[in-house]
Amino acid sequence: MSALGSIVFVVRRMRPEQKRQLLLSQIALIAAVVFELLIPQQIQRIIDEGIRNEDVATIVWTSMIMVVFALLSTAGFMTASWLGSLVATETAHRIRVGLYDKVTSLSFGDLDRFRTGPLLVRLTSDIGIVRNGMMMAIIMVIRAPVMLIGALALVALETPSLLVPTLGVVAAMGLLIGVIVPSLNPLYAAQQERLDRLNTVLQENLAGVQVVKNFVRQPLEIERYTERNDGLYSAALRPARRIAFMEPSFMTLLYVAVAVALFITERSGAGSLTAGELATFFNYLLTAMLPIAFLGFVLPELGRMGASLGRFRDIFTTQAEVRESDDPVALDRIDGRIEFDDVCMHYLDEAAHHGETPVLDSVSFVIEPGETVVVLGATGSGKTSLVHLVPRFYDVTRGAVRVDGVDVRDARLSDLRRQIAVTFQQPQVFSGSVTHNVKMGKPDASTDEVMAASRAADADAFVSALPDGYESDVAERGLNLSGGQRQRIALARALVSEPRILILDDTTSAVDLATESRIQRRLAEEFTDVTVLMVAQRVSAALNADRVLLLEDGRLVGNGTHDELLAESALYRSIVESQLGPLAEVENLFRAAGPPPESR
After folding, report:
1. Residue 481 forms part of a structural domain
2. For residues 404-417, b (16+ Cβ closer than 10 Å) or e, as one string?
3. Same domain for 172 and 296?
4. CB atoms within 10 A of CB 308
5. d(CA 442, CA 434)
6. Over the stretch 312-332, which tens digit does the pLDDT of each residue have?
7. Is the pLDDT of residue 166 over 60?
8. Could you give the C-alpha distances from 130 to 139, 311, 512, in angstroms and in order?
9. Edge-to-edge strands of the sheet including 531-535?
10. Measured between alpha carbons, how far is 58 from 54 in angstroms, rounded to an integer?
11. How far is the C-alpha of 131 from the C-alpha of 55, rounded, in Å?
12. Which of 244, 273, 351, 506 has the fewest beta carbons under 10 Å from its own?
């Protein structure tokens, strides 16, 4: 995004109050520049009329006028800077809030493509770049041309013989900036991309520090981080070299301008200059060059801001992969019937194109309200992808998923997801108390409801044993809890929301068999009218389920009860025997477990 485009992009998104502050800052800035331009004239008067004629009164009076102009100019610049700071800070704040709102509105597939590390850079580093760029733009974008035009006009008025060399040096500086600055924008974009890559490595290593230390991967990960950091260093040097070239070039042009101006004046026979005129010329020459020099440093910052705003625009203009229909169907209270009708699903790649191989292919089944259905299959068979289609975290690429006969693509998303609770493979807990974590499922839940959900998730005993019970602090990412404890808090969060459909994605993988059995028994006893769709790795979860869905390479290859699949599916028998032993022992185990509750 160009420098001008960056400014327009931001101004259009300002609130009316911000636009008024921006306008006032520019008025104050113009007034400050006018008073600043009047100061060299007073210096000339002091030299030519006061010092030359030894007129003390003129010196004192003119000096007082010059001080007043300086104070007024300073006041104008201070006002402009203060208002500019308000506008820039508020703009950065609004962009940060808007960006966060947009990110939270994106679907799972969109977040998969943007990735966490680059999103964090956008919400932190890029926001800071935009604030700094806005601050510099507010101060310099209007100030520079006003100073330049005013200085050239006064040079033409006071020392017309020096206008041509002044214009020449200004043109040379403008040409230099015109050559260097446009080349900086892609370099800054590349620099931010390198920062994305570095941040991704940093985030992965901080999140997986136990794995890194366990496998003594520190040297390799340090090497990996250093490689990305060196890439960022190289990317940052490229624009820095170009900017470093500008300052000495400007000073050289200044010295050349002075020499050429004096030479041309003497050769042209225009007469000698008075000391005051010479001082005034130097002041106006500097005044004319300063805005160009300022622009030389401001425009690269605007280029950085443009690169960051371009990255924001990528997010702001992204249409969520999963969007609510224009006329959504309200779902007041669902019964919990789930139907998959010839479902095919592909994940999108980074270019938002469907992958070649479907994750799910021609999957069809029906789950009646109140049933408990277990989904089994090898790793990568599509179990998690299947259950994520029910709350519409992703969309099908063919067929339909229906809840109570309504295609989930036609349902109001808030109604659908409010009645479907999901526990994920990697249980996410948040810093705060245990109560805070459980109440995320139902913010207005009472203490009794929180404790009842925790008992059903077999979490009450260990939570009560914590130093402050339910008010005990949970560390960042739940590092002060075991994996099984985190899973049970996540399950309690799901249960307290009183769902009509409960999706358990390998929720009990980190607990022992006895704990898993207690959880399953409580779910069967206390949530009899809730449809339960459970992804499991352990066959033991299927023993008392109403039905088992067996997936292989994204296709449904088995749909029936435990006994039916034992008799009909060689794949299911091999899974059972690999986990529980010979079939004779499995049958004894199944008989010992007893029949499922009648309500199932």
Report:
1. yes
2. bebbbbebbbebbb
3. yes
4. 27
5. 13
6. 888 888 888 888 888 999 999
7. yes
8. 14, 11, 51
9. 420-423, 501-505, 531-535, 372-377, 547-552, 555-560
10. 9
11. 50
12. 351
Give yes or no: residues 405 and 477 share one domain: no
Q: Is 501 helix (H, G, I), strand (E, B) or coil?
A: strand
* Token output for 272: 């000698």
What are the tokens at 325?
């229909």
Q: Name 373's bridge partners.
A: 533, 547
Number of domains in the chain: 3
> What's the start-to-end Cα distance of the chain, in Å?
60
Q: Among all chains, which residue has been given the structure tokens 């004239």?
A: 41
Q: Are residues 455 and 390 in the same domain?
A: no
What is the Cα–Cα distance from 189 to 310, expressed in whole angstroms?
A: 9
Q: How far is CA 305 from CA 2, 191, 408, in A?
A: 9, 12, 41
| H or E element, residue 370 | none
What pLDDT, on a 0 to 100 scale, did the predictor assign at position 594? 53
Q: At 371, is the pLDDT very low, low, confident or very high (cuts 50, 70, 90)?
A: very high
- Find the helix or strand (DSSP H, E) in which 402 lies: strand 398-403
Cα 513 from chain centroid? 40
C-alpha pair distances (Å), 311 with each of 126, 285, 320, 518 = 8, 40, 16, 49
For the cut 90, the answer to whether the pLDDT of residue 361 exceeds it is yes
Confidence category of residue 270, pLDDT binned at 50, 70, 90: very low
Write the CATH number for 195.
1.20.1560.10
- Look over the chain and give the mean of its residue pLDDT values, rounded to a whole number: 83
- Identify the pLDDT of residue 3: 56
| Residue 552, pLDDT score | 92
Whole-angstrom distance, CA of residue 572 vs CA of residue 565: 6
* Structure tokens, 437: 């974590």
**Exposure on the CB side of residue 513, measured as CA atoms within 13 A:** 7
Dist. CA 15–CA 19, nearest whole Å: 6
Query: Quick check: 410 and 436 in contact, CB under 8 A?
Result: no
Sheet (strand 338-345) strand order: 360-367, 338-345, 398-403, 406-407
Sign, CA torsion 99/104/107/112: positive
118 vs 75 pLDDT, higher one:
75
Cα–Cα dist 99/591, whole Å: 56
Domain CATH code at residue 360 = 3.40.50.300
Select from 281, 316, 351 the last residue of a domain.
316
pLDDT at 596 over 50: no
With a cut of 60, say whether residue 584 has pLDDT above it: no
Which residues are within 8 A (CB) of 561 and not within 5 positions of it... i.e. 6 or more apart?
A: 545, 546, 547, 548
Residues of the domain holding 437 = 428-498
Whether residue 490 is found in the same domain as residue 507: no
Cβ pair 426, 383 in contact under 8 A = no
State residue 600's pLDDT score: 36
The strand pair at 398-403 and 338-345 is best described as antiparallel
Cα–Cα distance for residue pair 255/370, rounded to 1 Å? 87
Beta carbons within 10 angstroms of residue 563's beta carbon: 10
Domain boundary among 298, 316, 334: 316
Q: Compute the distance between CA of residue 223 and CA of residue 7 in angstroms, rounded to an integer.
A: 40
Least confident of 173-177, 417-421, 582-586: 582-586
Sign of CA dihedral 232, 238, 242, 248: positive
